[in-house]
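Bench log, entry 3. Co-assembly request; chain sequences pasted below exactly as received.
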Amino acid sequence: MSINNFLEAFIKRESLFKNKAALQSSYIPEEIPHREEQMTLIAKVLAPCLRMERPSNLFIYGKTGSGKTLTVQNTIKQIELIAKREQIPVKFIYINCKLKKVADTEYRLIAEITRFFGREIPPTGLPTDEVYKIFYRTIERENQIIILILDEIDQLVKKVGDEIIYNLTRINTELKNSKLGIIGISNDVMFADNLDPRVKSSLSEEELVFPSYNAIQIQDILKKRSSESIKEGVMEEGVIAKCAAYAAREHGDARRALELLRVAVELAERKTLQHVTLKELDEAEDKIEKDRVLDMVVAQPRQFQLILYTIILISEKSKTESLFTGDVYDLYKTLCGKTNLRPLTQRRVSDVIGEFDISGIINARVISKGRYGRTREIKLVTGEHITAKIKTLLENIFNA
DNA sequence: CGAGATTCATGTGAAGTATACCTTTAGGCTTAA
DNA sequence: AAGCCTAAAGGTATACTTCACATGAATCTCGTA
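Structure output for the full assembly:
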């Protein structure tokens, strides 16, 4: 079939979607099922800002895909609406702390916040307290309430310590015109326990836990969203139930379930099918995982990619045996010679492996082999054919 | 045989270095009066 | 003389290196039964 034919056919064929946007992760639905309680609490905590009072800081936990971000955003949207109508100067700033090169250090976080007020901050070069001063001045220019939402705050604190949060909460004492409230969102339930008690008490003046969804609730969510976004009768019997079951298996991650559904329909559409069957669902699960990992790999710096490549090579050779930092480093060094890359030190490589572990591409555990020293035991966590995909991808990068 | 010492390979923290980028300042040149 | 541009000076954050010490269980050592 020529491309032209394909495109013609594509236009004539009816889409299986009614409103695809409703399945995308950026979509904020009008209603969030099973989260009424949490929404009211957030609203109660934040409400004082409509009277120009500083709301209590709020700390939220819950596993990924339990609706934390969505619920917060929805509540904010409503408050913003009222604030706008009543001309109350409330400003919400949402920042995801996980994003590399955006908000993963103290400097970058403050710089990023300040950027929300239209003030450009150079990527490096200024002293950090200078950036703080710019931040003060910018928000003090006008009388306003600022609510700062720090998503995945655990990642940030894990990397640079809890002093930032302390500084941020303390800013209020120095502000005259404006007021700052903080909402921290964390996936890690244990996170708060490792905080400095002072920081902890000031951050979690109010606390809120999002329980994971169970299978029935997920199914509920899926039904609701799919009726909004997908045409009637497209989903074959049992597909949604299966989709919910997949998600429930993963501690009730609703985001994942919705993505699964979307991709499954997309796949069916691409195959010019009229219905989505369980087969597409399985393929979708595979595709999502593959895309997620591959995107992550592509985004890594060269050195990181080469280290990952080494790990894949070694784990291929010795399928069952565990592999250790030393082996990786040796092979990595020789590969560096071939690729014309200056090898990093073992110290650094050790850190890189640690970072891979955090990002979830590999699994690295520090073990002691007794008489034979101490090292990290490294395992790939991706499935075999995905690993193969990564490998060819990396080979292309290094041959080019 | 078992408790304690030893050992190995690398984890990990602190301090130092290179690089890239920022602001300030001091010329040096141009321009207008 | 005032204004503007440029380059050097002095400063910072970040990624990485260097140095030095910490770790923890398998193995070894040696005293004891």
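The two ends of chain A are 32 Å apart (CA to CA). Residues 105, 107-108, 123-128, 130, 344-345, 347-348, 351, 366-374 of chain A lie near DNA strand C (CB under 10 Å from a C1').
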